[in-house]
Fold each of these.
Amino acid sequence: MPLDLPLTVKDAAAALRAGSVSSVQLTEGFLKRISVLNEYLGAFVAVTGESALTAAEAADSDFAAGLDRGPLQGIPLAVKDIIATEDAPTTANSRVLDPEWGKGVDAPVVARLRAAGSVVLGKSTTSEFAIGLPDSEKGFLIPRNPWNVDHTPAGSSSGTGIAVAAGLALGGLGTDTGGSVRGPAAHNGHTGLKVTFGRVPKNGVTPLGYTLDSVGPMARSAYDCAVMLEVMAGYDSGDPCAARVPVPSYSDLLTGDVEGLRIGVPMPYFYDSPEVTDEVRTAVFAAVDILKGAGADARAVVVPYAEQAKNANHVTLVAEAYAYHRNNMVSRWTDYGRYTRRALVRGAFLTAADYTQAQRFRSFFRRALAELFTSYDVLITPTWPGPAPRSDEMTPEKQLRSVSFTGPWNLAGLPAAAVPCGFSSSTLPLSMQIIGKPFAEGSVLKVADAYQRLTDWHLKVPPVPIAVAA
Amino acid sequence: MASDADAAVKMLLKNANLTVSDEEFAKFTESYPILRSQADGLYLPHLDTEEPAVSFDPTAE
């Protein structure tokens, strides 16, 4: 395994401009790693080697001609397999999705990445339709956590999470409806950003929860996520939910300065739940202390009705997902994976009033958070209550009973980043979550970047890929 | 209470026109009361004056 490939977009971009590596060499290197490790880790559903190398050649030609499209030029990325790409089918890791869906076209977010010169390596594994758990009977590779393959890489953006952690791509796209960018980022040990609802157009993406879905960057560092988001964000007329909000230069906001930053630490639910392990609590508190040492102020706060917010997000998600899947569930029930069926069916168990009431709660919760954010710049919580659990211990029913520290922010539509902050005694990554005001991705990434300038958790590489390659 | 959940799930599946395995039915009856409790918990008294967070633009093309 060629371990000399760069770890980050930032380093790769510098190497490309210094002429120490070409995009073709980078792309060939990542394709080689994928060929060695993908059967084992299940990161990719489809690898588009030919078109990736064509894009890499174009990037190199542009560099040679003095044309620089920005920090993503020549950078190999992964795209979650619910997002349409012109050079590969979109399966949503499902036998149900119409093979004609999205055929031959790029989703706007993919088109933007390509226009910026990036190289799409292929379609990365997702939980079926971004919900449920892997089902070995449906013919797709089972995604595995590169830190310990018996443990889950989380979902639903499993493949992009694995790819970034295992060095199979420098970054990639995930989607997040209840935690599907942040969970994989947390369990695989890198950075992931759930963006403000409407920040990135989601047309060309199979829906899960229409009013919750977001497309977000996943990469090792906050800086890498920032340069990806600069390209990804912005209005598109094809998405009725896309926001007409100007896109700042996120990377310019990453100054490392957190002097005077006001951090809210919501203790009830997010820290005192019995599911939160001591290791997680200790690691996140230590991360907050590092930020305090850099000049931030942190105070305990209360996020009101956080548990109900998690539940309202779930009610909203399964109701909206059921609307999309209802007809296929009737006619093609067993074509869905068994765990997908057990999650989607919940939409049939709710009433119209339940859905409406969840939206009434949502109004209240959004206003309560807006009030909280008048006194605080960001909130910091654990991303997940513990490290990645064993894959064979996960069920949809257990997920239903569990706390969620990510879902409340989908309900409110807020940006939130998962940032590595340590390891468990079993050598599995731990993660903190930084939540910001609507469209304050820059503030969230600035705090994450400041922390990453003082720590190196996000640069840790799992041993499993190295062992397999050897 | 289990029989209440059985009856409710049976009716809901019938209304949804879904035919499921016995194993699945058992899973659904296990999780249904939890889901129902979570949804019921959203009917908070202080939300009585709250408007739902939905919007509709009649001018959109």
Amino acid sequence: MAWSAIRRWRDELGDVYVLGAVRVALGLLLFANALRALRDLQRGYFGDAFHWPILPEGLVPSRTGYAALVVSQVLLAMLVVAGYRARLALCASALAGTYLLLCDRLQFHHNRWALFCYSLLLSLSPCDRSFFIAGEIPGTRTDSLWAARLTQLQVSIIYVASGGWKLLDSDWRGGRVLLERFHLYGSLAIARGVPPAVLDWVSSPECTSALAKLAIATELFLAVGLWRSRTRVFALWWGVVFHLVIEATSNVEGFTWLTLAVYGLFATPDVRARKLFYDSSRHRGRAIARVVWLLDWLARFEIRAWAPDAVKRGHAVVVVRRDGTHATGIGALAMIARATPLIFPLWGPLAFVASFTRAGETSTGA
Amino acid sequence: MLEVGPRARVGIAACWIAGQAALVTTAPLRPDRIFGFCMFPEASTMQIHLERELDGRRAAVPHGKWSAHDAAGQLAAFSWEDRVRDPILSQLDTRVFASYGVDAQLARLQRALDDVADHMPEDAETARLIAEVTVWKNGREPSTVTVFSHWRRRS
């Protein structure tokens, strides 16, 4: 049974369109990381001051070598985004970044290490078949998904590690760490738009204790829930909310956007499996279709205008799910949010409201 | 070049998972727990007070700056920040957030003290550097830790 599961993973094929979108997002984050290193270099070369290499000191690059490496990281990130020799550039970016982390552990941050892990794994996948502006046009977009699945597994490894360490730490479990973080960073959260009354409420020991347990449970749930088809959409939504809250209350460099980008790999590997019909005679229908067309980065929808008939009359848009069922009104909006990355945070409340309507938004397989 | 055959896929995945598992489970053996994905491990703060030891007595190092004679008797100026640019360790006599936890910062401080001690050959007076560190671990009552650089060989 285990061997048959391994074989299924090893030989799985699917549309790799989404891999290109994730590659572009990783490329942008690699670019931002390389620019930060370049700015740091302008302030001074790390090797001229106290640093703590993991590698032998003799393997730490000279100032010139380091400058060349950082500039090459900028160029490699551009290649990753452009899609030209993208896999090689992604692999080289990951190796160069890891090498530099090993040259000075003072510069180590989990988000940087995670970025290089994801980049290396994604470079083993056919992530260069979509979202490219240069190079050869690929013959087919159906290819192996083994490396994409391994990249997804890395997401779970990070959640298990992070949640597991917190679970083993009594200060974390009891809420003491969160309580102190709120005391230390409360002003930052308020500056980022968190209402002071909310901060006061969550900064009580009882609340931080509950929040700590919720955070641990969330990380451990995400490690598993992202893989199960019945829980995947909720896990993705809950994960997005979880990471956006962290982003609002802490300084995590690019970790939020990195994790949300890699969430794209959990999308079903197909394209335009759902249909969005809109009434081209109505402004609302045209506007929604236009917005979906602009934001449908994962190519979830086939978008078509229709001539209103007896079934569709009265609706600006109708979404046809994978299973062929129709969603209209708030249910259609929930379906659009569910499949559109930028407005995905709205899926939870929309789906909740839609669940009270007659049509509902209950189809889990769609 | 990056195409991988079916057999190699299993091998690569097995090595990757084993490697990550090893890095994560051995994280507590490293003071800064790097490669362990131990996110937000603590909410501790610390304050570093730097001193020099001169033939059995201690001298304060206000703002990380001091003057000392070299072997020829010339007076020279020294600064902690000339070598230590880390945003946490460079802030002396100021309460700062101990990113990645107190153990991580104390380990870094130990190496920073040794590094500075090794990079001031003109200072013929300082026997070693001492950091008195006040630590507030996860908001608890403060405790003090003393970290010493290694003894310097003065010319």
Amino acid sequence: MDGSRTISLKDEGMTKKKMIKAILVAGLFFLASGGWLLHLRIHPIVKDADNVIPLISGIISVFCLPLLFWFESTITPAYMINGFLAIIGTIIMTQFSIVNFKGPATLGNIILNSTLADISILWGKFALGKALFDLHLLKSDKDMAAKGRFFRYPNMGWWWVHLLALAAVYSLGNILWK
Amino acid sequence: MRWILLFKPGWWVIHIIAIAFILWLGHVVRF
């Protein structure tokens, strides 16, 4: 116990960083579990091949990503996988909503009778992953201000470009490749 | 410039594989 008094400021900073990291990893795990369990409830694993995609991405999100985010050496692949799972999930669930949309396209219907809620969960998970990645890069407050290239990796613009690009390529596969 | 990254073979390899995968994903998913 007495030893704790000799902890330097630097060590204390590391401990706080680690605590924030633990909270974010826990948040990622719970959010992914919630999304995955909701998905299992809507689409029990049957012979439908489409249900395999959320099953696999759910297993990756719940069991693999928290571990990959936890270890310093695997944070970059974790950030990439987490981001692309959010993008692919957004595209496929948007398609699902458009194909299965019922009733008039009123604002209320679009908000409540679509997969917008599920897509929101995914982007919450994306945000947690980005916070973990940024926390990993953060050495001082100056580092954050120094970043100016919005459309370059690992900044948000890079993700927006990839969201649009993946949506375009996915649509081509869906429409042209029958 | 960092745009030189575009000319590295690894960039092309990963993007060709990724585009093929996403095209295939669009092909198989039918609601």
Amino acid sequence: MSWLTEVSWSPYAVGFGIGILSWFTFLISKKPIGCSTAFARTSGMIEMIFRGKKVENKLYYQEFRPVVDWEWMLVLGVVFGSLVSSLISGDFVLEWIPSLWAGVFGVNPFLRVIVAIIGGIFLGFSARWAGGCTSGHGISGTLQLTISSWVSAICFFIGGIITAMIIYNVLG
Amino acid sequence: MEQQTIKKKSKVAPLIWGLLFGFIFGFLLQKGGATKYNIILGQLLLKDFTVLKIMLSAVVTGMIGIYFMKALGWIELHPKTGSVGKSVVGGLIFGIGFAVLGYCPGTIVGAVGNGYLDALFGGVVGILLGTWLFALVYPKLKGKFLKIGNFGTMTLPELLKVNAWIVIVPLAIIIILFLRWIESAGL
């Protein structure tokens, strides 16, 4: 069982595993793997703490009710799966700044967190605009050969590659 | 009484399955390095192709099994709707966030489990704010901008009006050749 405690596996083994995992989510739960809807539901739950039941009347939260569902639990499971994987391999580390970032933009955690929040706002906003993220469209949608998902996934990478090149080759 | 427990069970069981599937997904993402900013930015800077290797091998494995089970009548597809306004515009903005944050909505929760604090205190907060902002503007976009150039839930075999395997087999071959080319280029 030493393979379980290895720091990393071949990306092909990981992809093969995710592919097989998707067979079982379709078969047992009748659902594709996805993550961004859970964030939308959570944002509604947080708004409900402040504004109460009337949040449920908002058009978006009528369609995506602010409740804990299968996908929400899936997202929670990802935290624990990654935690266990990194703990047993010794790869768990409490870290504010990724080394690639630090090498170009320095070690100020405040700057990194502000940029991460801004990036997150774009990401959350547009994942719901496109109706899915790198898992929902990028893996689950493309493997079903859905046109919307292939178009979305290709655009994720076009936008991502251009932006990354600007950040590291122009600004950095 | 018995019926009540059955009813309760049927509500809880799917959630437990979700948690279990998520656990495996997170475990795999961490083992693949997809929970790391450096790996994701390495992909977007075209220096490290780990992310595409994971995604494309998942797509090949997944589509063969999914369409096989569909042919047997065991499962149904769950295709998402899309349009030019929704998928192209949404997708390109997603790309900006993807590169600025260095995680995506799935890998960021994995990054939190991996201990990365910029993911927990930066990215997760930002994504929640972003989805909340989208819920605010959604009534103005729904049925309007999000419908421009609509292609609905159509799949590639439906578009080409062919048997699904006519798409799956060549696509799998193209992906495998692409991955072999990536390997031979040392990326």
